[in-house]
Write a structure and sequence with these properties.
alpha+beta; Alpha-Beta Plaits; four-stranded antiparallel beta sheet; about 40% strand; elongated
Amino acid sequence: MKLVLAIIHDEDAPDIMKILNEKAFMVTKLASTGGFLRSGNTTLIIGVENDRVDEVIEIFQAKCKMQKKIVGETTPYTNMDGFMRHPIEVEVGGATVFVMEVSQFIKI
């Protein structure tokens, strides 16, 4: 068994959770915050049988697309006064997916 931990854009979460549930995957949703943009993310935790891991990853690949966003002057950043002086373009969205081995699974 594997544990899939996926960090996705908040806007993608409802569609992905619906698809995962329709395909009989049990999903736990956690609210999380990204470090650089300090914006909301969703972290999904999914227990997956070994032979279905690729199916889960394909769902994220199909639904989580990167997009460009202009970050304005009030976005927190790590310069001396804590804020950016000029807007910059960054990529947001997509998914960061970790697949980990599960040594034991107990559902009580």
